[in-house]
Amino acid sequence: MTTSQQPSRQPEPATAGRRGHRTQAERRAQTRTALLDATIDCLVELGYAKTTVQEICLRAGVSKGAHQHHFATKAELMATAVEHLTHRIGAEIIEAQRELPTGAELVEQGIELIWQGFSGTLSSAVMELWVAARTEPELAAAIRPVDRALGRSTLQLFRALAPHLPEQRLEVLYWLTVNLIRGLALDAEIGGDPVRRKQLLDEWKRIALTAYEAT
């Protein structure tokens, strides 16, 4: 027997050395999210004309090379950023939808929910892109499918709120609501009267409620 023995060393758990260590996929996802969030911030604060890739990368804390690794063009980055924001707001609306009342109050609060979700940051960012897309075909091609996807997802919300409405009436009410909200959001952007906006939104809630109760 030896005069001294080293204590046996227990094998470390496989995850011990990796505690707090992010995988490559996690780092990529974090970089991508940072770029998308920074893009939205720039669009809202600076407008499209002053939003540069350099400024986006600076705010995101990443290199220009990292941006190019994730997005081939500026147009792709812009469209994906709006899509990213759309999904985030959509998830918030779906979560809030679970607490909506039933019956007549559902119509009023449902329209209010959509107005709150799609009239603020999302409206500002999308508006910047659509104005720019009028003269930039590449941007128009990138943003168009995102806008259509937004329309489909919001229509699904309408269907969930009023499943008993005939499809044709549902879609008419939906598109009227969407276009009204877009118009009111534009009115807010150009400094329109907030009292008038509320009156118009309340009047539309009344009309939509009448259509809802007529079924």
Task: Please supply descriptive tags for the structure shown above.
215 residues, disordered N terminus, elongated, single chain, mainly alpha, 9 helices, Tetracycline Repressor, domain 2, 0% strand, 73% helix
Radius of gyration: 24 Å
Structural class: mainly alpha
CATH fold topology of the domain at 73-213: Tetracycline Repressor, domain 2
Query: Uncertain runs with pLDDT below 50, 5 residues or more?
Result: 1-18
Number of strands: 0
> What's the CATH architecture of the domain at 73-213?
Orthogonal Bundle
The biggest sheet, with number of strands, parallel, antiparallel or mixed sense and barrel status, is: none
Mean pLDDT: 81
Q: Termini distance?
A: 93 Å
Oligomer: single chain
What is the ordering of alpha helices and beta strands?
HHHHHHHHH
Helix content: over 70%
- What is the CATH homologous superfamily assignment of the domain at 73-213? Tetracycline Repressor, domain 2
Q: Name the CATH class of the domain at 73-213.
A: Mainly Alpha
Q: What's the number of helices?
A: 9
Binned strand content: under 5%
Q: Which word captures the global form?
A: elongated
Present the secondary structure layout.
Blueprint: H1 24-46, H2 53-60, H3 64-70, H4 74-97, H5 104-118, H6 121-133, H7 137-161, H8 167-189, H9 194-213
